[in-house]
Amino acid sequence: MVTESDIEHIAELADIGISKDEVPEFTTQFNAILDYFDVLDAVEGESAPAAGITNVFREDEPRPCLSQEEALANAGSTEDGFIKAPRVM
Amino acid sequence: MKTIVGLEIHVQLATATKLFCGCSTDYRDDEPNTHCCPVCLGLPGALPRMNRKAVEYGLRVAKALDMKVPEESEFARKNYFYPDLPKAYQITQYDKPLAVEGTVEIEDDEGHEKIVRITRVHLEEDPGRLVHVAGAAKYSLVDYNRSGIPLLEIVTEPDMRSPQEARRFLNKLRTILEYLGVFDGDREGSLRVDANISLEGSQRVEVKNISSYKGVEKALTFEVTRQKNLLRRGQKVTRETRHFMEGRGITTSARGKEEEHDYRYFPEPDLRPLRVAGWVAEIDLPELPVARKNRFTAQYGISLNHARTLTGDLKLADFYEEVAHVDPALAATWVADTLLGELNYRDMSIAAVPADRFMELLALLRADTITDKAGVQVLREMLDACAAGSPCEKPADIVKREGLGKAAGDEFSGIVEKVVAANPQAVEDYRAGKKGALNFIVGQVMKETRGRADPRELGRIVSECIDTSGV
Amino acid sequence: MAGSLDFTPDDRCNAFITTCREAPFSDGALAGVAVAVKDNISTAGIQTTCGSRILEGYIPPYDAHVVELLRKEGAAIVGKTNMDEFGMGTTTETSAFGPTRNPADPSRVPGGSSGGSAAAVAAGLVPMALGTDTGGSIRCPAAFCGIVGLKPTYGRVSRYGLIAYANSLEQIGPMARTVEDVSRLMSAIARYDPRDSTMLDKPYDHRPSADIAGLRVGVPEEYFGEGVDPRVAETVRNAIGVLEDLGATTVPVSIPGMRYALAAYYVICTSEASSNLARFDGVRYGPAVDTRKSWHEAYQDLRLELFGPEVRRRIMLGTFALSAGYAGRYYAKAQVARRNIRQDFERAFREVDIIAGPTMPTVAFRLGEKTDPLSMYLSDILTVPANLAGIPAISVPCGRVDGLPVGLQLMGREFEDERVVDAAYAYEQGVKA
Q1: Where is the Asn/Gln amidotransferase domain (chain B) (predicted)?
Q2: Three-state secondary-structure class, residue B195
């Protein structure tokens, strides 16, 4: 059982916004889905090392980069060649 | 109260390209966001590709530190949200690192040899660089040139017992990395350290963000004092993360979100696992510091102390070997004692010293053309020119220009006669058996010749002069 | 014969998010063929949105590998097709650009998430299209719209340039009205790309053959069980009968791990998605983040405003499934279940060459019919096993129920995409004859 406060905590952990009126609905849906996931409790066996191909490499040879203009083309706002972002301090 | 220190060191590997894309790593001094591509900008749809060289470099370190390389290792995503992390996860290694269980030998505070155990080394990508803009509108500016630079994270056991030991460990580690050719210590920010420090019986504090190995001792010394003061006042040390403020030499608490991370690691689905344990046997390690030190004493016949100093830095050791053919013993003294002191005083790197000019200087000293004292003066002139970015003059030209050639012949005896004549009291004292009087006269002659005379030879000449001068 | 195609479709189904009025093309195996591309595949110079507001206006500076290959083969990229937001849906209703309608019945959904590609093909706007399949997103809309769609073996087609939803499960694949065209498009896109480390160098160079004499077809009981519309089951059994008439033999097989498949699938895909979708922060691309706010506040607000509820729900589910204290119960268990299912298929494929069953348990839903997320998830039960196992799977139309198309799903061994194409081709030609 997850509670509404669990849902708010998960939203915080995911760093994703959730509006107040969505919380009850999300809680109900989560509980239904997590109930369904309970089937996994019955899964048996240990996790094994990944199968298949290993050691996929490229050589240490420089390739052309994007120009500064191309690198900044999709950015919402830029300043002196930097990309502008919200303050973190 | 025992101090317990463990370190996490992030070393930028000196590959030509980034860890997961072909962008050049040579980004310093370049415009922001000019060493970027869809992969290191985290553009939607771009996929990482593993740089073979970075794995080889990591294994080279593992072998040099005598580590175990597990059969399989794997990359994982470390999820956290920050604007300098373009994919919002860092590709790193989590429960299957590249190598585990190694050792580094250092000297403890009493000068005895001790082992610092290495827990693990793993590969990961560097995030971009953030610039904080203050003022009325606060915001951040991001440069992704550094994004994706390969890092080797080296984690130690809590085996160090003082800030000084931590510094010696880092010096030793840095030397090994340079010898291995996997690291360029001259690049700004190429070695960054997080330190865990606790006083026995107290909580552990993690100090993050120490961007130079010299800063580690400073940060840890500050922490020891801070924590001891807390305990002295009857307070407790809180388990927390603190940031080192390099400029002010203090640490400050980093409270808030950063404290409660849940990184939600899981295996990186865009990369395949590594099975590289078999590569280790094929790695030819270069000569490492200890081996080179032993060779220096044997091959050049120099003292253990000189050999240790000279091999403590790869570039210094290379420089010594280059200039040693002039005269190994003379070169050892002049590089390890004189040159190193002069470089430290100027905060200069050995890389700035032209070996050919230095060899010319050694040749002048060896041929007795100049005295040691004059030699130091010539060296200072040379280094000042190098530091100023001017071409380094030939030592012989400096000697000529400054008139520093060893005084000899007529000029020499003329000065001695003059000084003897001007100091009759000292002459009399000498004749009366006072040895000190001779030194006084020699000192006067030295002053007159501005150090160009050899003091021992001078003593002989002065005594001869007095003996043959009129009674 | 290079030139440009004038593309002005009558898109009454809302199959396209972006159309290219003048689509250039060149010489090659697909010279002048109009190809539609799902909008989660990067196209240099053409807006690529993943059906989301959070990428509105994003113009990739590079082409996905499959798009490079299409251009090289001379195809004309005529537009970007509608899809469930980031592929998260089974109906194409979660698109931020409005739902796509099913050309077979405009009151019905086309299936999803590649609903736009399926509708564009079914409506005759293009002969072929690229879709992507994470848990059935090619096969489901192919079945619902009555066209052919192939999910290739994992590692057969480069994912470079595919905007990731669940990296370990998804593949780009061909969709068309005929098996032959699906095979042609597959030949163009299944070419080695060293930029995708999970890929193998096994190019697809194949012309379909209808000779299936001696083919052993496995029929798993789990594909005809509870939740499968009996009329759909019967239609599919009849189609398997056609394969028998053509010389194939049928063998009952079992995939016991199926009982865990859907839960394992949703744990894995939401976990990977929670990580993949965190990069959309409005800093480097997409609608700009508000730089006057503090970082976490701005980031949360942007994601609340620009992601739809299903996307946020799955991000939260995945975050929870990976979080400290729960990862062992969800993520780790799902990986074990996945391995078990892969082994179930390996075991079955020692007895048979092909496994056959319905693609979807029902025919296409009415628009707005599925409101509850879990009941929507349950409709993916027959398609997700192939993604968990990494094996090739094709959906080929095999009749109608209530006048709506039904799909026959044929699954094969890893890297035996040719064999599933042949079996589908044999069925298609056999029915036509």
Answers
A1: 318-466
A2: strand
Of the candidates A55, A61, A88, which has its C-beta nearest B22's C-beta? A61
Distances (CA, A) of B106 to A30, B194, B217, B289, C312: 55, 19, 15, 12, 52
DSSP β-bridge partners for residue C294: A87
DSSP B25: S
Q: Is the pTM of this model over 0.85?
A: yes
Q: In the sheet that B99-107 helps form, which strands lie side by side, from edge to edge?
A: B99-107, B113-125, B150-156, B3-12, B191-199, B205-210, B240-245, B250-253
Which residues face B207 on adjacent strands?
B195, B242
Confidence of residue B460 (pLDDT cuts 50, 70, 90): confident
| Cβ-nearest to B49 among A58, A65, A79 | A58
pLDDT at B260: 65
Query: Do residue C62 and residue B38 have CB atoms under 8 angstroms apart?
Result: yes
CA C41/CA C158 separation, integer angstroms? 11
Beta bridge partners of B68: B100
CB C286 within 8 A of CB B42: no
Rounded to the nearest angstrom, the minimum Cα separation between A10 and chain C is 6
| Residue type at B212 in one-letter notation | S
Strands (DSSP E) contained in C242-369 are: 249-253, 354-358
* Whole-number Cα distances in Å, A56 to B20, B272, B275, B377, C203: 11, 6, 10, 58, 18
Greatest Cα-to-Cα distance within chain C, rounded to the nearest angstrom: 70
Q: How far is B40 from chain C (nearest CA, A)?
A: 12
Considering just the CA atoms, what is the radius of gyration of chain B in Å?
Answer: 29
What number of residues does chain B have? 471
For A58-80, the pLDDT digits (tens) are 999 999 999 999 999 999 999 99
CB neighbours (10 Å) of residue C29?
Answer: 13
Inter-chain Cβ pairs, chain B and chain C, closer than 8 A: 105
Which residues, including other chains, have CB under 8 Å from residue A40's CB and lie 6 or more apart? C260, C263, C264, C267, C329, C330, C333, C334, C337
